Automatic annotation (TrEMBL):
GO terms for molecular function: beta-catenin binding; cadherin binding; calcium ion binding. GO terms for biological process: adherens junction organization; calcium-dependent cell-cell adhesion via plasma membrane cell adhesion molecules; cell migration; cell morphogenesis; cell-cell adhesion mediated by cadherin; cell-cell junction assembly; homophilic cell adhesion via plasma membrane adhesion molecules. InterPro entries: Cadherin, Cadherin-like_dom, Cadherin-like_sf, Cadherin_CS, Cadherin_Y-type_LIR, Catenin-bd_sf. This is Cadherin-12. SMART domains: CA. Cadherins are calcium-dependent cell adhesion proteins. They preferentially interact with themselves in a homophilic manner in connecting cells; cadherins may thus contribute to the sorting of heterogeneous cell types. Its main location: membrane. GO terms for cellular component: adherens junction; catenin complex. Keywords: Calcium, Cell adhesion, Cell membrane, Cleavage on pair of basic residues, Glycoprotein, Membrane, Metal-binding, Phosphoprotein, Repeat, Signal, Transmembrane, Transmembrane helix. The keyword Nucleus does not apply. The lineage of its organism: Eukaryota, Metazoa, Chordata, Craniata, Vertebrata. Residues 1-25 form the signal peptide. It is found in: Cell membrane. The chain crosses the membrane at residues 606-637.
């Protein structure tokens, strides 16, 4: 019994340890390439005394993409070790696409794909499988996860995502110069077969360019490609998968390649000689023509600089480059004259501004052409011989004196006569005239330098054959000074001399001024007048530099004897004719200290020698002011007291009577009202005479012939009489009014002696005889009165 139990235990250990293989056949598993045999074994539950080994080798299935069969595509099979084939096990499927993409047979565990799959959309699906007891609905084993991968097929061609491409390369580049790198992308699985292995090739664009089949780098294949020959290239690039093998899919793109410019071409003139025609009247700085050199390059490589080669006529012209058209613009630097020169020839050189030294071997990058300019004759206005005429004339020159002439010529072929005239806009006052034929300028009025020292006007010259052609020139006339004013002391001097002055001391420096326009180097001379030269207190020392000094001649001066000295100084100029003037200088005697410093020149200086100080003088003046104030106050009080007494005596009177105590003058009273409107306004009012007093007896003149009535005076008197008769404010008495107003229009003013400043005895009427025959009667009448005047007779 014991032996049998030990043998049973040994057998159990051997079988459970896996040292022996069970007798039942194991489920056969195949590779994924045989989908009908794809079996996924699920682990079964172990009994208490039995150990079960897991039965699957991998946990993934494969399914072909883009399956187009009529039946669902078989994927694989699920199988559990606990499934004895009795129909008690149910298989379930969950996860990505369960039920929609993939289905499972619950009894057999077969998995099918019910629709076509695209690996590029979803490369794999993750699902979970489980075996469930049909009766108890309980899982027979834990849920297992597995993957279904979509197996790639070559269904996507390579694509150039960045195409079409644009690239550039400099012209004249060597072979193999880098242009551009292109890249194609294949959506197929790069880890499975050659579906995603791309090879590049050129379908169009050879033999100019080449491409690396692996990297897609495009390079130049020909040397010295010239942009001026062909600038644009279109290259067609192909990318093919499957390593370029037959049956692979391909994609294409276009690469537009531009050859960029380099300065490999010099400028060239299309012709060797350029002919230009220019009118002689062309203004300076104007463009007279254009020439152009052709450069096939582009941009800054085609920028051209033009220069005039030194030679015949080159200094009259200039050339600049038009930046927009790269043409050479010829401009005029100096005026042209057909009569002087009719044609000019010079050379122009064109060269590039930006030179590429790699192409120097091709030759000089410049070209030369000849320019011939023909000057066209244009009818021009007359030309003055000078651009400005300057003339001089002395002031007070007689009218009509010729002071100068202008000359203008017609330089055209078949010259015309010229006519001159003054531009009235510049000489509106007509101080000068010009001879229209000769061009001589003469004075038209007397000139005064002190009024106008310079005249500036214009003269116009026009052709007689064509007056519209005219030219203008400025005339500058300087008026020269004639010595007509004497020199005078320049400023008023306040000259002082000290009482303790010594002989020969200069107390004042004086200078002179002349209103004439003194020429350079004119000298003034100073001297003492002849009447003051006898025993003079002062003398004049001429310094010969247009200044002089006042020199003392005495030893000391006394202010108490003479406070002021008047010194006549004669000043002469050096012009012709010589003009001189006598100027009186006032010299005041002042008190000075020992150093010559003036202390005082006022009234105080008179009292200082007496010994009175300044304080004493102020005290004396203050006392005088106080005394005057007391006297004025006393007089005012006396008058006020007298007035108060008079008013007191009149308080008892009921009515106040005002006494004027004025006696009227009767009919002879002419002072009652103002008759100044009828009098000569030039007569001084202070010398009015009373007409109510009998005048002195006068010698009666001889009988005068009757004089015609002056109607203006009569009408004026009648008008005044009517106004006085109608005036209610007129005096209530008769008045005698004497009207002695001659009138403002008279040359001799008033001839009446009434209200004159002097009496008839003091008046001299001899000048009436000089007034002409109109005043002969008046001269005889007053001459007779003088003869009977006893004072004049003496």
């Amino acid at each position: 019994m014991l032996t049998r139990n030990c043998l049973s235990l040994l057998l159990w250990v051997l079988f459970d340890g896996g040292l022996l293989t069970p007798l039942q056949p194991q489920p056969q598993q195949t590779l994924a390439t045989e989908p009908t045999e794809n079996v996924l074994h699920l682990p079964g539950r172990r009994s208490h005394f039995q150990r079960v080994k897991r039965g699957w080798v991998w946990n993934q299935f494969f399914v072909l993409e883009e399956y187009m069969g009529s039946e669902p595509q078989y994927v694989g099979k699920l199988h559990s070790d606990l499934d004895k084939g009795e129909g008690t096990v149910k298989y379930t499927l969950s996860g990505d696409g369960a039920g929609t993409v993939f289905t499972i047979d619950e009894t057999t565990g077969d998995i099918h794909a019910i629709r076509s799959l695209d690996r590029e959309e979803k490369p794999f699906y993750t699902l979970r499988a489980q075996a469930v007891d049909i009766e108890t609905r309980k899982p027979l084993e834990p849920e297992s996860e597995f993957i279904i991968k979509v197996q790639d097929i070559n269904d996507n061609e390579p694509k150039f995502l960045d195409g079409p491409y644009v690239a550039s390369v400099p012209e004249m580049s060597p072979v193999g110069a880098y242009v551009l790198q292109v890249k194609a992308t294949d959506a197929d699985d790069p880890t499975y077969g050659n579906s995603a292995r791309v090879v590049y090739s050129i379908l169009q664009g050879q033999p100019y360019f080449s491409i690396d089949p692996k990297t897609g780098v495009i390079r130049t294949a020909l040397p010295n490609m010239d942009r001026e020959v062909k600038e644009q290239y279109q290259v067609l690039i192909q990318a093919k998968d499957m390593g370029g093998q037959l049956g692979g899919l391909a994609g294409t793109t276009i690469v537009n390649i531009t050859l960029t410019d380099v300065n490999d071409n010099p400028p060239r003139f299309p012709k060797s000689i350029f002919h230009l025609k220019v009118p002689e009247s062309s203004p300076i700085g104007s463009a007279i023509g254009r020439i152009r050199a052709v450069d096939p390059d582009f941009g800054q490589n085609a920028e051209i600089e033009y220069n005039i080669v030194p030679g015949d006529g080159g200094n009259l012209f200039d050339i600049v480059t038009d930046e927009d058209t790269q043409e050479g613009v010829i401009k005029l630097k100096k005026p042209l004259d057909f009569e002087t020169k009719k044609a000019y020839t010079f050379k122009v050189e064109a060269s590039n501004l930006h030179i590429d030294h790699r192409f120097h071997s091709a030759g000089p990058f410049k070209d030369t052409a000849t320019v011939k300019i023909s000057v066209l004759d244009i009818e021009e206005p007359p030309v003055f011989s000078k651009p400005l005429y300057t003339m001089e004339v002395y002031e007070d020159t007689p009218v009509g004196t010729i002071i100068g002439a202008v000359t203008a010529q017609d330089l055209d072929v078949g010259s015309s006569a010229v006519r001159y005239f003054i531009d009235w806009k510049s000489d509106g006052d007509s101080y000068f005239t010009i001879d229209g034929t000769e061009g001589t300028i003469a004075t038209n009025e007397l000139l005064d330098r002190e009024s106008t020292a310079q005249y500036n006007f214009s003269i116009i010259a026009s052709k007689v054959s064509n007056p519209l052609l005219s030219s203008k020139v400025n005339i500058l006339i300087n008026v020269l000074d004639v010595n007509e004013f004497p020199p005078e002391i320049s400023v008023p001097y306040e000259t002082a001399v000290c009482e303790n002055a010594k002989p020969g001391q200069i107390i004042q420096i004086v200078s002179a001024a002349d209103r004439d326009l003194s020429p350079a180097g004119q000298q003034f001379s100073f001297r003492l007048s002849p009447e003051a030269a006898v025993k003079p207190n002062f003398t004049v020392r001429d310094f010969r530099n247009n200044t002089a000094g006042i020199e003392t001649r005495r030893n000391g001066y006394s202010r108490r004897q003479q406070e002021l000295y008047f010194l006549p100084v004669v000043i002469e100029d050096s012009s012709y004719p010589v003009q001189s003037s006598t100027n009186t200088m006032t010299i005041r005697v002042c008190r000075c200290d020992s150093d010559g410093t003036i202390l005082s020149c006022n009234v105080e200086a008179i009292f200082l020698p007496v010994g009175l100080s300044t304080g004493a003088l102020i005290a004396i003046l203050l006392c005088i002011v106080i005394l005057l104030a007391i006297v004025v106050l006393y007089v005012a009080l006396r008058r006020q007291k007298k007035k108060d007494t008079l008013m007191t005596s009149k308080e008892d009177i009921r009515d106040n009577v005002i006494h004027y105590d004025d006696e009227g003058g009767g009919e002879e009273d002419t002072q009652a009202f103002d008759i100044g409107a009828l009098r000569n306004p030039k007569v001084i009012e202070e010398n009015k005479m009373r007409r109510d007093i009998k005048p002195d007896s006068l010698c009666l003149p001889r009988q005068r012939p009757p004089v015609e009535d002056n109607t203006d005076v009569r009408d004026f008197i009648n008008q005044r009489l009517q106004e006085n008769d109608a005036d209610p404010t007129a005096p209530p008495y008769d008045s005698l009014a004497t009207y002695a107003y001659e009138g403002n229009g008279s040359v001799a003013d008033s001839l009446s002696s009434i209200d004159s400043l002097t009496t008839e005895a003091d008046q001299d009427y001899d000048y009436l005889a000089d007034w002409g025959p109109r005043f002969k009667v008046l001269a005889d009448m007053f001459g007779e009165e003088e003869s009977c005047n006893p004072d004049k007779a003496t």
